[in-house]
C-alpha cells in the first residue's frame, strides 16, 4: 500500500512537470530603427525637362501657394526646412511640407518637395492627402505604412516587415521608400 500511495502522489507531480515543458520557443524582439519616410515630389517641365522646384530656375513654381491637406490640417511649404540625411543618427522630424535639395548623404537627388516624416510603427492604414499645386491642379496620394512582425524560426527572433503601398491619383505605384514614394510629375 505504501508504494501505491507514493505512486499516486508521484503521478500528479510528474504530470505537472511535463505540462511545464512545451514546444513553444522563446523569440527575441530585437531593437529596430526604422526610417521615417516622406513622400517626395519632383516636378519638371514637360517641354524642357527643367526642375520646376529649383529656386534658381526662372520658371520655378515655388512662388505659388503650394500646400498639402492631411488629416484636416493644411501644410504650406516650410521656409526653414533643411534636408536631413536618413541615418540612424537623426531623430524623426515633425510632419511638414519641405523643399529639399541635393544632399550628399541622401539617395534622393535634386530639388523636390517632401511631405512627411511618417512613422511605420504608427500602423498607418487608409491614409490620404492632397497636394494643391497653387494653380488649380492637385495630386491625391493614398498610402499605408505599417509593420508586420514575423517569426524567424532559425534565429529565434521577430523580424520586421514594413509595408508601404502607395497610390497617386488612383493609380497603384507599388511599395518602397526609394521607389514608389518618389513621385515624378511633368507639367
Secondary-structure blueprint of this entry?
Layout: H1 2-19, E1 38-44, E2 67-70, E3 73-78, E4 96-100, E5 112-116, E6 124-132, E7 138-152, E8 157-163, E9 166-168, E10 171-174, H2 176-180, E11 182-186
Parallel strand pairs: 1-11, 3-4
Antiparallel strand pairs: 1-5, 2-3, 2-6, 4-5, 6-7, 7-8, 7-9, 9-10
Mean pLDDT: 85
**Percentage of residues in strands:** 35-45%
Shape: elongated
What is the oligomeric state here? single chain
Poorly predicted tracts of residues: none
**Distance linking N and C termini:** 96 Å
How many helices? The count is 2
User: In angstroms, what is the radius of gyration?
Assistant: 26 Å
Sketch the topology as an H/E string, one letter per element. Answer: HEEEEEEEEEEHE
Count of individual beta strands: 11
Structural class: mainly beta
Q: Name the helicity range.
A: 10-25%
Keywords: Signal
Protein name: DUF4843 domain-containing protein
Amino acid at each position: 500500500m505504501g508504494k501505491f500511495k507514493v505512486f499516486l502522489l508521484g503521478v500528479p507531480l510528474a504530470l505537472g512537470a511535463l505540462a511545464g515543458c512545451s514546444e513553444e520557443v522563446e523569440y527575441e524582439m530585437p531593437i529596430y530603427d526604422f526610417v521615417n519616410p516622406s513622400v517626395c515630389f519632383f516636378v519638371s517641365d514637360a517641354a524642357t525637362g527643367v526642375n520646376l522646384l529649383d529656386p534658381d530656375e526662372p520658371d520655378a513654381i515655388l512662388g505659388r501657394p503650394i500646400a498639402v491637406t492631411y488629416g484636416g490640417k493644411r501644410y504650406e511649404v516650410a521656409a526653414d526646412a533643411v534636408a536631413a540625411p536618413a541615418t540612424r543618427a537623426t531623430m524623426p522630424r515633425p510632419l511638414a511640407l519641405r523643399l529639399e535639395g541635393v544632399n550628399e548623404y541622401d539617395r534622393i537627388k535634386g530639388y523636390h518637395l517632401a511631405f512627411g516624416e511618417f512613422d511605420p510603427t504608427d500602423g498607418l492604414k487608409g491614409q490620404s492627402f492632397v497636394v494643391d499645386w497653387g494653380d488649380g491642379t492637385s495630386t491625391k496620394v493614398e498610402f499605408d505604412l505599417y509593420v508586420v512582425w514575423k517569426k524567424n524560426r532559425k534565429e529565434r527572433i521577430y523580424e520586421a516587415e514594413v509595408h508601404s503601398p502607395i497610390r497617386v491619383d488612383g493609380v497603384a505605384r507599388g511599395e518602397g521608400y526609394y521607389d514608389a514614394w518618389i513621385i515624378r510629375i511633368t507639367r
